[in-house]
């Protein structure tokens, strides 16, 4: 979401990582957007649009919207601009702006919908951002917030190096102004800053030997997600090369195990701006 000048971002901003973010968005689309409905909206605000991965999906799924994406990283916005410009269905339907989500330059009541996905986990003051989003939404507008609950991760067979890596992954994020467990707190956060009709829904990926192809796919996806943070974790000495190597070996073994189990849950909250 930023360039690291304000707080470290675990995954980095390389072209490889930018491509991973687009693949991640497509991978999770059917679950993330199952209950998202902007069909009656015209002006949507996307907070932390990054490389435009979620922007692409919203513009495709909701052909009548105009989307304004904001982010604090110029490199990510440049990548988003190039990507969205290549999509014929997005032409003339979006704006991308370099802005701080906690201090936006938009007038009050500028949008009739807002979308945040995998963003609040990376920021030091999520309440400030949610309050500012409420300010720029028209009364009666709906906000959707999708966030991690990293405590829910489960993998079988037991993989000790993966767990060491995963704990370091979460500790690093928590110690650097983030919150890898924020999904479970969304109901409280939205209520505290004045939203109404707050609803929360737990969404789960759970795959065992009844769904071998889906299980293989999600373990491969998860391996890429975990390894996207290895450079930062190694530089911070949060993990050792031996832990990284061991985690990769265990993930590869689990991926091939005919009786493996993978489970992970995240939270999606929706709320309305009161009149």
Which key features would you list for this structure?
alpha/beta; 8-stranded mixed sheet; globular; about 280 residues; Rossmann fold
Count all strands and give the number. Answer: 8
Largest sheet: 8 strands, mixed
**Tally of separate domains:** 1
- The CATH architecture can be given as 3-Layer(aba) Sandwich
Terminal Cα span: 31 Å
Number of helices: 9
CATH class: Alpha Beta
H/E topology pattern: HEHEHEEHEEHHEHHHE
**Which residue ranges are poorly predicted, with pLDDT under 50 across at least 5 consecutive positions?**
1-6
- Mean pLDDT, to the nearest integer, reads 93
State Rg. Answer: 19 Å
| Secondary structure: helix percent | 40-55%
List the helices and strands and how they pair.
Layout: H1 15-32, E1 43-47, H2 53-61, E2 66-71, H3 74-85, E3 94-98, E4 111-117, H4 126-136, E5 137-148, E6 154-156, H5 160-175, H6 186-192, E7 195-207, H7 212-227, H8 230-235, H9 241-256, E8 261-273
Parallel strand pairs: 1-2, 1-4, 2-3, 4-5
Antiparallel strand pairs: 5-8, 6-8, 7-8
Describe the overall structure.
- The protein has 275 residues and is an alpha/beta fold.
- It has one domain (15-273): Rossmann fold, CATH 3.40.50.
- Helix 5 crosses helix 9 (241-256) and helix 7 (212-227) runs antiparallel to helix 9.
- Helices cover 40% and strands 23% of the residues.
- The two termini are 31 Å apart.
- Strands 1, 2, 3, 4, 5, 6, 7 and 8 form an eight-stranded mixed β-sheet that branches.
- The protein has helices at residues 15-32, 53-61, 74-85, 126-136, 160-175, 186-192, 212-227, 230-235, 241-256; strands at residues 43-47, 66-71, 94-98, 111-117, 137-148, 154-156, 195-207, 261-273.
- The model is unreliable at 1-6 (pLDDT under 50).
């Amino acid at each position: 979401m930023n360039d690291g000048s304000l707080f470290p971002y675990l995954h980095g901003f390389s072209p490889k990582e930018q491509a991973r973010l687009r693949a991640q968005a497509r991978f999770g689309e059917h679950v993330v957007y199952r209950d998202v409905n902007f069909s009656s909206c015209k002006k949507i605000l996307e907070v932390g649009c990054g490389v435009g991965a979620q922007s692409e999906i919203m513009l495709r799924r909701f052909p009548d919207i105009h989307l304004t994406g904001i982010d604090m990283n110029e490199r990510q916005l440049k990548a988003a601009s190039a990507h969205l410009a290549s999509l014929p269905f997005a032409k003339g339907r979006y704006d991308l702006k370099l802005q701080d989500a906690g201090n936006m330059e938009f007038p009050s009541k500028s949008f009739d919908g807002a979308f945040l996905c995998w963003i609040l986990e990376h920021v030091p003051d999520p309440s400030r951002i949610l309050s500012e989003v409420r300010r720029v939404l028209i009364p009666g507008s709906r906000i959707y917030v999708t966030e991690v609950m990293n405590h829910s991760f489960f993998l079988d067979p037991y993989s000790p190096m993966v767990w060491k890596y995963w704990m370091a992954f979460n500790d690093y994020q928590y110690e650097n102004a983030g919150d890898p467990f924020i999904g479970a707190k969304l109901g409280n956060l939205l209520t505290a800053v004045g939203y109404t009709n707050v609803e929360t829904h737990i969404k789960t990926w759970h795959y065992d030997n009844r769904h071998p192809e889906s299980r293989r796919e999600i373990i491969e996806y998860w391996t890429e997600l975990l390894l996207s943070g290895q450079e930062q974790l190694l530089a911070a000495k949060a993990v050792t090369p031996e832990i990284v190597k061991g985690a990769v070996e265990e993930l590869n073994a689990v991926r091939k195990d005919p009786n493996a189990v993978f489970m992970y849950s995240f939270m999606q909250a929706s709320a309305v701006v009161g009149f």
